[in-house]
Amino acid sequence: MVNNVVVDDTDTQYIAYSGASDWTLLTGSSRQWESTVHSTKTYGAEAAFQFLGLCDYPCWSGFIIYDTIPAGSGTVFVDITIDGGSPTRVTRTSGSDNVYNDVLYQSPLLATDSSHTVIMTNRG
Predict the structure, then answer these.
(1) Which of 14, 41, 53, 91 is the most buried (most CB within 10 A)?
(2) Organism's domain of life (predicted)?
(3) Dihedrals φ, ψ of 105, to 5°?
(4) Rounded to the nearest 5 degrees, what angle is found at the Cα of 117, between the Cα atoms of 17 and 7?
(5) Angle at alpha carbon of residue 44, lines to 41 and 47, rounded to 5°
(6) Other C-beta atoms within 10 Å of 119: how many?
(7) 3-class SS of residue 21
(8) Cβ distance 90 to 102 under 8 Å?
(9) Per residue in 67-81, pLDDT tens?
(10) 3-state secondary structure at position 20
């Protein structure tokens, strides 16, 4: 049985942002989930996402992070760290149009019945 849970960027039950002043909440585009997106230009700013992988056996859990790429915003670098492991560097470069619901990162399969912590770190 597959159980999908969608978490909005404003859901503080699951997501914690380092330094509230480092992040800006942008609203208004219906093309973004719940019409919101968090943005930062602060190097080293982090967003941490915690969840418990649960499902009926046999199965695994995982996650997908979607982003918005504003037109003309240049190149961004994000490190994704899962459960304290080595970070994975993700790079995105903007074009002449906004891009919505871009898959920034899709996790490998993760163990179920375990708590997981994902940290996204702005690297430029």
Answers:
(1) 53
(2) Eukaryota
(3) -160, 140
(4) 65
(5) 85
(6) 18
(7) helix
(8) no
(9) 999 999 999 999 999
(10) helix
